[in-house]
Amino acid sequence: MLFRSVSGAVGPAGWTLARPIDQRAYQDDNASITSVSCVSAATCFAVDSSGNVLASTAMNSWQIVNARAQSDFVSISCPSLRFCAAADNSGDVVLFSQGTWSDPISIDPGNELMSVSCPSRAFCVAVDNAGNAFTYTGSATSWPQSTVDPNQDTLASVSCTSTSFCAAVDQSGDVYTYDGASWTSSGNVDSGNEFVQVSCFSAAFCAAVDNSGNAAVLTGGSWSAAAMPSTAAGISCPAMGYCVAADISGGSLVYQQGAWSKVSKIDGNNSFTAISCTSIN
User: Fold this and answer.
1) Each residue of 176-192: b (16+ CB within 10 Å) or e?
2) Which residues is 116 bridged to in the sheet?
3) Which pLDDT does position 115 carry in this prediction?
4) Is the N end or the C end of the chain the one with fewer CB atoms within 10 Å?
5) pLDDT tens string 82-113
């Protein structure tokens, strides 16, 4: 199901009412949307757990545009209308460039990719379940590997704002950052919990959410973790000091001015799986 937060929306808390968008879901063992990446209020791309890519180039108009993945997609990142990278759980990526989708490209055989982030069409980073990162700099078949987590914990999510800054989080509460040359540990900022997603607006502001109802925020050069009003499934930070989270119980909440809003119920008690925001309304 899809929701959009738009001016004049008829749904609760400024969100549209829910509508199904994945035409394959009913014939592909009830496939679920696993990731979404929006370029603008009208243009978004999404991937599902049956290896399909969906695109919306007009408000509330979705279609399947690619179904050639060999495994389940887990993440997609689209910095523009003309470029996307999608990662699956078999170590493959699929690229959208010059109007066409590539065949699956194996970059991490034997492992599962967990997340991909592309701040531009010339730079992407994907992370896997063994503590590794893979960097794309323009060549579709060249994704050099770097060790991020020496303990080989699963890197749940990565968010890059430029070629000189990325943040990655693992399932042990650790944060790692990339400075354009190497990865370094920012410490165990959420001990005992598993991060599920991180989103960065810049090198000065990021937020990560875990599976226990906490959020860790990067401000002033340091990370701090604290409880939030609900357990988030995803988070997106489109502006400095501002994020929107979607939770596991059909709610959304906003982070601004250093605090979280109350939860707004927008989808009953259903669990969200992904969120992408391009700007503040």
Assistant:
1) bbbeeeebeebeebbee
2) 126
3) 98
4) C
5) 999 999 999 999 999 989 999 999 999 999 99
